[in-house]
Amino acid sequence: MNKQLLEKIKQLKDMRNAVILAHNYQPGEIQDLADFCGDSLGLSIKAAETDAEVIVFCGVQFMAETAAILSPQKTVLLPDKFAGCPLADMITAEQLRQLKQEHPDALVVCYVNSSAEVKAESDYCCTSANAFEVVNSLPMDKQIIFVPDQHLGRFVIEKTGRELVLWPGYCTSHVVITEEDIKNTKAKYPDAVVMAHAECTEPVKELADEILSTSQMLRYTKASSAKRFIVSTEVGMICPLEKQNPKAEFIAASEKAICPNMKKITLEKVLWSLEDMQHEIVVPKEIAAKAKRALERMVEILPVR
Ligand code: SF4
Fold this sequence. Notes:
Blueprint: H1 2-16, E1 18-23, H2 28-33, E2 36-38, H3 40-49, E3 54-58, H4 61-70, E4 75-77, H5 93-102, E5 107-111, H6 116-120, E6 124-126, H7 131-136, E7 144-147, H8 150-160, E8 164-166, H9 179-188, E9 193-196, H10 202-206, E10 210-211, H11 214-223, E11 228-232, H12 238-244, E12 249-252, H13 267-276, H14 285-301
Parallel strand pairs: 1-2, 1-3, 3-4, 5-6, 5-7, 7-8, 9-10, 9-11, 11-12
Helix pairs in contact: 1-13, 3-4, 4-14
The structure holds iron/sulfur cluster.
Residues 25, 60, 85-87, 113, 171-173, 234, 259, 261-262 line the site of iron/sulfur cluster.
């Protein structure tokens, strides 16, 4: 069945001149199917560089929006229109405008996990891989508003020593990983290196050997001589880590760390997406232009890693 499905997807993909992108948290079969796997911004940049006319983004809404902002001449499709991101939805553009009014001289840095409207209200965008460098590059006399992830924000405060105005947003899939999960897994596998994503809570990060973004986890494990790793992020990340390092063992810190929105994408939905050219993600021009400015400013500070 899957074989037929995959064949049909391939035919349609060629017919539409499409590229299929899959985030590191996607189900394994979607990652296997994709032309490119990676983190959200890396994928959007990759998409903008290809000459494909259609981008099928196997991820969530804000990722497809980012691809649409960076590739305005291409058609961006999200196979499930209900694949949203609770973290991105925790702040609206109106709430950010209100926060800016309360801190009129502050610069705004938004995590890429935010809506196009929130990006459009921000001065700089950042990823979990470069949030520290982006904040560090800003004038010391400037107050900084950081939205929407409070845990990434606290990590940046710790690394830069700067005070940030934080928004109380959080990733519903990362905060379920507890301190006990790390302690119990570490007790079972004492030789394992603990890698935690910055979206994890502070007690979890304190127990980690390395705090890394998904792309940094891939680079770190490739270069490491360790043979066992505890992975404190969304469970889908185990798939690209295993693929890249077949001789190493990767253990999820918690099997509960599943993003249900990421898992909404199925092979059937990818097929329907290409068949019916749905669900097209369109970002209004004015918002896209402002959001792009925040993304470009980030890239000017340092290349995306
Ligand atoms: Fe949003 Fe968290 Fe799911 Fe990523 S893992 S899409 S941040 S809810």
